[in-house]
Design a protein that fits this description.
Blueprint (H helix, E strand, L loop, with lengths): L10 E5 L2 E4 L4 E3 L3 E5 L2 E6 L7 E4 L4 E4 L1 E6 L9 H10 L2 H17 L2 E6 L8 H11 L6 E4 L4 E2 L20 E2 L3 H13 L4 E5 L22 H13 L3 E6 L2 H10 L3 E4 L5 H10 L2 E3 L2 H15 L6 H15 L23 H6 L4 H7 L2 H6 L17 E4 L15 E4 L2 E4 L5
Parallel strand pairs: 1-6, 2-7, 8-9, 9-10, 11-12, 13-14, 14-15, 15-16
Antiparallel strand pairs: 1-4, 2-3, 4-5, 7-17, 17-18, 18-19
Helix pairs in contact: 4-5, 5-6, 6-7, 7-9
The structure holds zinc ion.
Zinc ion binds next to loops.
Length: 418
């Protein structure tokens, strides 16, 4: 693959009808993105002399998208049987082959950067795949990865197998503050970019009278604070899977950087998130996908999740919580839905199209610590470009039919050769 790569010192120009400036929300008449050495050099109104031109006609150019919550190493996880199969039966190499396919799909969908939150029992395969992309061995999005993720004894699949045997788990299981610190050190030493921690799980037993749910915490405050302080002291951010306020409050108190899923967030917790600048990745498409199955498998409370989540998202938007676009793809099969199908869910709860586009570009880039590097076409950014047939601001479903994707100056999807 390396031999076919183009000369990165040449000047390259990508021209559409307009460039969508996601920061201002406006279409710019400066419709030529000039690229050198994998980065945006400038955005111009004309093609510079000597530049090789990729002319995309009437298409609107915008930055490549960011999915802040993916699982390349899962191919469906709606219930216990899928988790069991992938953890206990499927060979790791087979799962990694699926992951390579998932990375291709992410690029084809226009996602040039992803934060992959947990390898679900395949150790540090995500680290290896991230590095293989960076080396040009395989094609894929730029990846920030979390390695095995962390949870406590008895809180994560697979469970309830013979107690006298040892079985694999979808996370690194640790208990006690010292073990938590050690696990964070270990994960960082093996190459994790993020620490992912499950602060509570499930949907609880019943819908409370106030319209929210509660489920028990996975950690003591001491354990969670050990995880976060250890990660932060090494410059590593922490993503907290939290499904209701108990896990969420403990995660906020410990100082995590993002809340994942957050099915049930009361107004007070939403205000605290906004105050502390903690991001939410709502993953509504994945929730919608698993609800029916989990209601049958784990109890009818799952039927209430759609309404609780809609309430929660309104609380978060009212409070001004920053929404980082995240789909939890892999929880649903990569081959079944395009990640951009998360967007109509966000529209339905009241986000504007441009805010949704920002959540999948500039806002997610801030969360990832990559502001200015990805999610923008400003000079110095990685030349990650998608071409949309029409204005995505008036119809987000246009993003589901893109056919041109560039990552770091390389054309990775196109109907024709350039
Ligand atoms: Zn997830």
């Amino acid at each position: 693959m390396n031999d076919e790569r183009r000369d990165t010192t040449e000047l390259l120009a990508v021209r559409g009808s307009h460039v969508l400036d996601v920061e201002s929300g406006e279409l710019s008449d400066r419709n030529v993105v000039v690229i050198r050495d994998s980065q945006v050099l400038s955005v111009e109104a004309t093609v510079p002399a000597g530049a090789r031109l990729i002319d995309l006609g009437d298409s609107i150019l915008m930055p490549g998208l960011i999915d802040a919550h993916t699982h390349i190493l899962l191919h469906g996880n709606k219930g216990a049987e899928e988790a069991r199969y992938q953890l206990m039966e499927e060979y790791p190499a087979h799962r990694i082959a699926h992951a390579v396919q998932a990375m291709r799909i992410a690029l084809d969908n226009g996602f040039t950067t992803i934060r992959d939150l947990g390898s679900e029992g395949v150790g540090y395969a995500d680290v290896a795949l991230r590095d293989a992309v960076a080396e040009g061995v395989i094609e894929g999005p730029r990846m920030l990865v979390a390695g095995p993720a962390l949870s406590s004894t008895g809180t994560y699949p697979v469970q309830r197998y013979r107690p006298d045997w040892t079985f694999p788990a979808g996370v690194q299981v640790v208990d006690g503050a010292d073990a938590c610190r050690r696990a964070v050190r270990e994960q960082i030493s093996y190459g994790a970019d993020w620490i992912k921690v499950y602060t509570n799980s499930g949907a609880g037993r019943q819908l409370n009278a106030d319209g929210y749910i509660d489920s028990p915490p996975n950690w003591t405050a001491e354990e969670l604070s050990a995880i976060v302080s250890e990660a932060h002291s090494r410059g590593t951010k922490v993503a907290a899977h939290a499904t209701s306020d108990i896990g969420l409050d403990m995660a906020l108190a410990a100082g995590v950087d993002s809340i994942e899923h957050g099915y049930s967030i009361r107004p007070a917790a939403a205000r605290l998130m906004a105050e502390r600048g903690v991001y939410l990745s709502p993953t509504m498409l994945a929730a919608d996908y698993v609800i029916e199955h989990r209601a049958r498998e784990r109890g009818p409370i799952w039927q209430a999740i759609r309404d609780v989540q809609a309430r929660t998202l309104r609380n978060c938007l009212d409070a001004g919580v920053k929404i980082a676009f995240g789909t939890d793809v892999g929880g649903f099969p990569w081959t079944e839905f395009n990640q951009v199908e998360e967007m109509p869910f966000l529209e339905r709860i009241g986000m504007s199209a441009i805010d949704i586009l920002r959540s999948a570009t500039t806002v997610a880039a801030e969360l990832l610590g990559l502001a200015g590097e990805v999610g923008t076409l400003k000079p110095g950014a990685s030349a990650d470009i998608i071409a949309v047939n029409g204005d995505p601001r008036s119809n987000l479903t246009r993003l589901a039919s893109i056919d041109f994707v560039m990552r770091a100056g390389q054309v990775v999807r196109s109907p024709r050769a350039y």
